[in-house]
Design brief:
Radius of gyration: 36 Å
Mean pLDDT: 74
Number of helices: 21
Shape: globular
Structural class: alpha+beta
Number of strands: 26
Low-confidence stretches: 15-20, 153-160, 191-232, 246-269, 282-296, 301-312, 333-352, 360-403
Distance between the termini: 128 Å
Length: about 775
């Protein structure tokens, strides 16, 4: 038997080894853990990132770092970047003193000294006491409020008392809201026969509306300022229909749901003396010339009053009087400078400046010698050389709108507030969930530094306040409390929506017709480890899941010279990642199938059934009704994307049956609003939001863990004031889309509301 040559076998083996695919060693990397890293909290998220990136992520307790093992360096680098963004998002959920900043902007004069008065002496104490629980009021009563320093000590006879609270009535924008039934009807109505309407489809189509509020709620606005509500026109329209039954049937009826626009019926223009009216005859070739008798009959018929709505007072048309005159010259009157000024407003800036200089020189002359009555309403020979005649060059050009933002007087204050929130806003770019940037109307109270301390009109200086509320690094912040429950009466909210700019300019600040309104039902649940999450359902019963809302950062602005304060907050609701616990996901899905909502005229009832294995429990059930009103700028030609947001929050009174402990029944009495306020189950919250900013923040809901959005940045939320951060306005499309509805505009509109709101306003006795 032939044997193989050993040298030949060695060569063949080498040939096969060289052709085998060479496997490169995997790439490795490490991420240094921050000081506040907790392994138990980060472990589920590390597992998710490892599954998404296809890497191996392990925690090294000895080196306090996270080791990443991947197929190449690019994947490892992307995984480490995801870990960095994950830490930025989770760090926002941990309250940190640096994320809560305090500011105070005082008037220029008269506020060198301040004083801290006990909160129980504050004018809004009565309103807050009706909304606070016994434990909350016990804490608030021991706190103090910053107010201006008073030179004269208050006497008992001239003591400031609190204002009488408004009646516990719903807002007129929520009084006629209609609810619809949804959910598992058969689960809680098995004993009802099918003939009595036990099917889910027939029951869900039955709309039930809330009862109308008392009539005195609707008369909150001065009638000489605003248009009449459609609900207030019903009786007047019905009376008009009864009086005009004999009128022509072809006349379209008046819609009681539509208020009559006043601009469709302009006031009657009176004839001006000295101005000739000329009658223009419109005759066609086909129609013959009418006789004088026919003309008189037609004029008499046209002067007869026609049946019109009683909502608009009828006035007969004046019959024009014609005079045969010769060529006359008309006096220009005293309004010729106004006409010239109106025209100058539409020329270019250079021509406007030239005409402004000319008007300054011509104004004293017009006061000394009025123009002659024989002169035409044109420029005289002296003014011909000074007047501007548009040449062909200027006639073809149109005035260009300047896109350069205007520097406001309080831009320095806006920059200070924004600089405090900028690190939080940058970190929020990695937050996967819902974000809301709002300017809340709140009341800021200060807690005593020690249990033995009490506030008894203690005088403080601005430097003392800064030392406690704007401390340097390493110094703890003074304790405080931001109270966001403004009122329990819908009449107070309606009065805020109806505020005007001033008595001289009685224009509304917000549109009376809401932009939108929605109702959300929230189940606040708690897991065994203490963490919580929320199950939200819209009016149709469609569910969504997210973690418990938390304040990621805030800038609190104290206004000692105002009744209330402002708190610009960034709230976040992280998406609920059920992949951490499949058992939890199944329990949530089964729980949603047990929800049943049944509205009624007397009570609003909702049912649910907790999981059998007690994976989570239900702490409370809330119903949030949100109404948004668009802001009307003082300059009506300008547009605004700012919105005044009011939220009515009602908590269900829950109960359980002894024989069915997992079954929960929630109930809201519709008519017993005062009892709900006394039980601290009803309150209102108000804030200012920017619709342009909110649309950008909503894009974070599409993010996954460890991702960062590129659709917006923190400085771009300034809008037209982005140049405060040395960034050109023209270089950012996001800032241009926000424009004048940015961060600073939210702050300014909040100040306008603070100056005009009258909730808890004191009365001198």
């Amino acid at each position: 038997m032939a044997t193989a040559n050993p040298k030949t076998l060695e060569k063949v083996t080498d040939w096969f080894l060289d052709d085998l695919p060479s496997t490169e060693p995997p790439a490795t990397g490490s991420w240094d853990c921050p000081p506040n890293y907790h392994q138990d909290r980060y472990a589920p998220f590390l597992k998710h990132i490892a599954d998404v990136t296809g890497t191996k992520v392990t925690y090294d307790a000895l080196g306090h770092k996270v080791d990443v093992l991947g197929k190449d360096a690019t994947v490892v680098e992307q995984t480490i970047e995801r870990l960095t963004y994950l830490h930025s998002a989770l760090s926002l959920l941990t309250p940190m003193p640096t994320s809560h900043q305090h500011h105070m902007f005082l008037p220029a004069h008269g506020y060198d000294k301040l004083q801290i008065t006990p909160f129980r002496h504050h004018s809004a104490a009565t309103t807050v006491k009706t909304l606070a629980s016994p434990d909350e009021w016990k804490s608030l009563a021991s706190m103090g409020v910053l107010v201006p320093f008073r030179q004269v000590i208050r006497q008992e006879k001239s003591k400031v008392t609190t204002a009488t609270s408004r009646p516990a009535v719903p807002s007129r924008f929520l009084s006629n809201h209609t609810f619809r039934m949804f959910g598992n009807y058969d689960m809680y109505n098995k004993t009802v026969s099918s003939s009595e309407g036990s099917s889910l489809s027939s029951a869900a189509d039955k709309p039930v509306s809330n009862p109308d509020p008392p009539e005195h709620v609707l008369t909150l606005r001065p009638k000489e300022y605003y248009s009449i509500l459609a609900s207030e026109n019903t009786d007047r329209v019905t009376q008009w229909v009864d009086q005009n039954k004999k009128s022509d049937s072809t006349t379209p009826p008046v819609d009681p749901q539509q208020s009559v626009p006043p601009e469709e019926y302009p006031p009657e223009q009176k004839p001006v003396r000295g101005v000739l009216k000329r009658r223009v005859r419109e005759t066609s070739k086909s129609s013959p010339v009418k006789s004088a008798k026919a003309k008189a009959t037609q004029e008499q018929a046209s002067a007869d009053p026609q049946p019109i709505s009683s909502l608009i007072p009828w006035k007969p048309k004046p019959v024009p009087t014609f005079h045969h005159t010769m060529a006359q010259k008309v006096s220009p009157g005293t309004n010729s400078p106004l006409k010239q000024t109106t025209l100058d407003k539409y020329w270019t800036s250079a021509v406007g400046a030239f005409e402004k200089e000319k008007s300054k020189r011509s104004k004293p002359e017009s006061r000394e010698s009025p123009p002659s009555s024989t002169s035409r309403p044109t420029t005289t020979t002296e003014n011909v050389a000074e007047s501007f005649i548009p040449t062909q060059k200027y006639a073809n050009e149109t005035p260009k709108l300047t896109t350069k933002p205007i520097l406001h007087a309080d831009s320095h204050d806006v920059l200070e507030i924004f600089n405090a929130l900028q690190p939080t806003l940058e970190a929020a770019r990695s937050f996967p969930g819902s974000l809301q940037l709002e300017a809340h109307i709140e009341l800021i109270t200060m807690a005593p530094y020690s249990p033995d301390q009490c506030f008894d009109d203690r005088v403080v200086t601005v430097e003392d306040w800064k030392e406690n509320f704007q401390p340097k690094k390493g110094t703890s912040l003074a304790p405080y409390w931001a109270w966001n429950k403004v009122t329990g009466s819908g009449a107070d909210v309606d009065a805020m929506i109806d505020i005007i700019w001033s008595k001289k300019s009685p224009q509304r600040i917000f549109h009376e017709t809401p932009v939108d309104r929605d109702v959300v039902f929230e189940y606040h649940c708690r897991i065994g480890d203490g963490s919580g999450f929320v199950i939200s359902l819209d009016e149709a019963g469609c569910p969504s899941f997210h973690q418990t809302p938390s304040v990621l950062g805030c800038s609190t602005i104290h206004f000692p010279h105002r009744m209330w304060d402002m708190n610009i907050t960034l709230k976040g609701e992280m998406n609920l990642h059920c992949y951490k616990d499949p058992e939890l996901k199944k329990a949530i899905d089964d729980f949603v199938m047990t929800i049943y909502f049944e509205p009624g005229n007397d009570d609003i009832i909702i049912f649910c059934s907790e999981p059998r294995n007690k994976v989570f429990i239900v702490d409370k059930i809330l119903m949030k009704s949100t109404v948004r009103h668009l802001h009307i700028p003082l300059n009506e030609e300008a547009s605004s994307k700012l919105i005044f947001k009011t939220v009515e929050i009602r908590q269900f009174m829950t109960g359980r049956k002894p024989n069915h402990p997992r079954l929960i029944r929630g109930r809201i009495p519709v008519d017993k609003r005062q009892e709900c306020i006394s039980a601290r189950l009803l309150w209102y919250e108000v804030s200012v939001v920017s619709d342009a900013i909110q649309k950008l923040l909503n894009t974070n809901q599409e993010l996954e863990l460890g991702q960062q959005t590129e659709k917006w940045s923190a400085v771009e939320l300034l809008g037209d004031e982005i140049r405060l951060k040395d960034v050109p306005f023209e270089s950012s499309q996001v800032a241009q889309s926000i424009d004048d509805s940015g961060f600073g505009s939210m702050y300014r509109l909040g100040k306008v509301i603070l100056d005009r709101m009258r909730i808890g306003e004191p009365q001198l006795s």
